[in-house]
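Run Putative ABC transporter permease protein through structure prediction, thanks.
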Amino acid sequence: MPGARRRASEMGAGHAHKLYRHGHSPVHALPAHCKIAAVFGFVLVVVSTPREAVWAFGLYALLIAAAAGAARVPAGFLLKRLLIEVPFVAFAVLMPFVAEGPRVAVLGMSLSESGLWGAWNILAKGTLGVAASVLLASTTELRELLLGLQRLRMPPLLVQIASFMIRYGDVITDEMRRMRIARLSRGFEARGVRHWGVLAKSAGALFIRSYERGERVHLAMVSRGYTGTMPVVDAGAATRTQWTRAAALPLAALAVCLLGWTL
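Sure, done. The structure for Putative ABC transporter permease protein is below.
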């Protein structure tokens, strides 16, 4: 059994994602399913908080900062990866201009009051949710995330789809890199519309190669006894102490949320 675990770990080692930051903090040591449940609970509490309780979102941000400090994740690392929400920020910025309802003057501009509250609601809750998700990804490897979802009784088929998607994403990306190098070695460089035909043929070849590889992998899995379910290599349960540590974030957020509704 230890040998099987070691081999599984080696197989998953090649699929470390860019969001993950290797470390040995107390947050890194928590089981993945505990962290997933904690982040899910935290996001639910944040979403349930009334938008008028502006101070509550400041406290949520402090909780995320404390969790990042415990995980030893630098602020720059976290902030850089928050750029993924830029499209939502752009949408929120437009809301005060296009929403209907009573208008208020802000810096000489006539803005919708309901639009301002809506923009604040999206920005505050969206940013906190993304920050919590980035922190989860920064402290948990992809393989552990998938195993955590499996331990939380997520439908096995969805877990397998996610696992194959991650692995084939790496395979297809590597295949695209090799095809690009092959084009460059032959002096090809896309400079205009007249080169789109070559790129289209490359995309078609990539699709065919990926499809054929998928068929070969499926046949290999079936020949080794695959019946639609993947074996759980490491099914270790979390201790009560680990669950308590993971629950600290959502429980603290819940206390803030209750104050936000009562004050």
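The radius of gyration is 23 Å.
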